[in-house]
Design goal:
455 residues; mainly beta; five-stranded antiparallel β-sheet; 3 helices; disordered C terminus; binds 2-acetamido-2-deoxy-beta-D-glucopyranose
Length: 455
């Protein structure tokens, strides 16, 4: 009996020690949340597994460490937040731990604790966050990086060595607090709730409800869904030329692959966009383009310029409790450029790849059907020269592989009324020319262009 009594008191002591530890350092997916959408200055967060609001691991290899969270379980909108995010599939031997991004995210599913009255909820490991914005997409930070909301009102991200990575530069503007909005806008506000700074002014790859894209601003695709760094596609709005929205591949010079609207269009509608009130409107007669979704978080839509150059409209289904399924609603560029299916997108087969059959990639072959000049270093996606071209050797050692009935997405002729031999000659005499494209015009005179294909 005495022994049992002793054991009981040991158990009690252990519990007393462990419980406070868990509530201060939640880990894995143990964290329970109530709303914490704002912070006053001055406060600092450190990127560690012991983050005050938990470090949540998801089955796709991503980890999220929330800093702010806007959510109300009694209402049907998804949780939005600010936090440190990484996708561990990125971590390779050559590039270890420095892969955290400061992001605005949206969660697609929560579970509510059994005791519904305390209004607490948890995230689910199988449902990773959807990243909507990133502060440091091209400068990821490591463990122990810090985010400081300084006494002066500056929001400052420093890497693990204390080096400045990113800042809002708002120390002279009377910022009093920061807040995450329920449409994914991170805001710095002054003492009278006036907007001083917002992430909506610095779009990355995602266009959110009521976010204005100003003349000259860009929406820039990420490299991949786990590598958030700047990819090769971007979208601009162009008022000066009264053209509308233009999509480019970021080569030198940039090459346009789609124009979404011309000046005569003011809106695109249809069932995918809901009723007229919710329709996406693109006002070409204003300096800003405005995807005027109803700013309602319960009917949440957003547009992403994807890593593959597609422009996708997403819709968040809020009709089921605690579930916010993200559905692809429309490929906005499809009707304009998809005459060749996926082959219409510039880099779908990488450098030198030839796209056919709506998305099959192959390396260029000569008319004997062999490919002696290119090899597929990434099967079905990327081709490389077997012997790289060099300017040192001069043009007499160079010849052409003929590829009949192949075209290029951005054909801008540079020579007119010429012959196929003159076209080859012009390319051979220009060291930076790697391919020539020859096309007969619709009338008898031929039309021709040669290209400096950038890699
Ligand atoms: C920020 O300060 C205001 C006013 O003092 C207070 O009401 C609010 O609770 C504070 N918010 C946080 C997150 O500390
Ligand atoms: C959540 O929404 C309910 C219903 O609108 C409201 O009464 C409550 O105050 C909200 N809770 C928070 C934390 O904002």
């Amino acid at each position: 009996m005495a022994t049992a009594g002793l054991m009981n008191s040991w158990v009690t002591i252990l519990l007393l020690i462990l419980l406070p530890l868990f509530s201060h350092f939640p880990c894995g997916t143990e964290a329970y949340y109530a709303d914490f959408p704002s912070a006053n200055l001055s406060v600092s967060w450190k990127n560690t597994p012991f983050n005050e609001q938990g470090s949540l691991d998801f089955v796709d290899g991503s980890t999220l460490r929330p800093i702010l969270l806007a959510y109300n379980v009694t209402q049907s909108y998804p949780p939005f937040g600010l936090g440190f995010f990484t996708n561990k599939t990125l971590i390779s031997f050559s590039m270890p731990a420095s892969v955290f991004y400061l992001v605005v995210f949206m969660m697609t599913r929560v579970t509510v604790s059994d005791n519904d009255s305390d209004r607490e909820y948890q995230f689910i490991p199988t449902m990773p966050p959807k990243v909507l914005w990133s502060a440091n997409r091209d400068s990821p930070v490591g463990e122990n990086a810090t985010l400081d909301f300084t006494a002066e009102g500056d929001l400052v991200l420093r890497d693990e060595f204390g080096n400045l990575v990113w800042s809002t530069n708002t120390s002279t503007t009377y910022v009093a607090r920061m807040e995450i909005g329920v449409t994914g806008n991170l805001m710095l506000l002054n003492g009278s709730n006036g907007m001083v700074w917002q992430s909506y002014d610095l779009p990355t790859d995602t266009w959110l409800p009521n976010q204005k894209i100003n003349n000259g601003q860009r929406l820039t695709a990420s490299n991949s869904s786990s590598n958030l760094s700047t990819g090769i596609y971007y979208l601009t709005v162009d008022k000066e030329d009264n053209i509308g929205i233009r999509a480019f591949v970021d080569s030198d010079p940039p090459e346009e692959y789609a124009t979404l609207l011309d000046g005569s269009f003011h809106a695109i509608g249809g069932p995918a966009f809901g009723n007229a009130y919710n329709a996406i409107r693109l006002y070409t007669d204003f300096a800003v383009f405005y995807f005027n979704f109803a700013a309602s978080p319960t009917d949440f839509r957003f547009i992403v310029l994807e890593p593959n150059g597609h422009l996708i409209l997403y819709f968040v289904d809020t009709s089921y409790p605690y579930t916010f399924a993200v559905e692809q609603r429309r490929d906005l560029l499809a009707a304009i450029i998809d005459s060749f299916g996926d082959c219409s997108y510039p880099a779908v087969c990488g450098s030198y790849g030839v796209c056919s059959g709506g998305g099959q990639c192959a390396c260029p072959q000569d008319n004997t059907g062999t490919s002696n000049y290119f090899w597929p270093f990434e099967q079905g996606i990327e081709c490389a020269e077997i012997t790289p071209l060099s300017c040192d050797h001069g043009s007499k050692y160079h010849t052409f592989v003929d590829l009949p009935n192949v075209t290029y997405f951005d054909f801008v002729p540079t020579l007119f009324a010429t012959t196929i031999d003159e076209c080859k000659e012009a390319c051979l005499n220009n060291c930076s020319c790697k391919a020539a494209l020859f096309r007969y015009d619709t009338d008898v005179s031929s039309e021709i262009g040669y290209y400096e294909l950038s890699e």
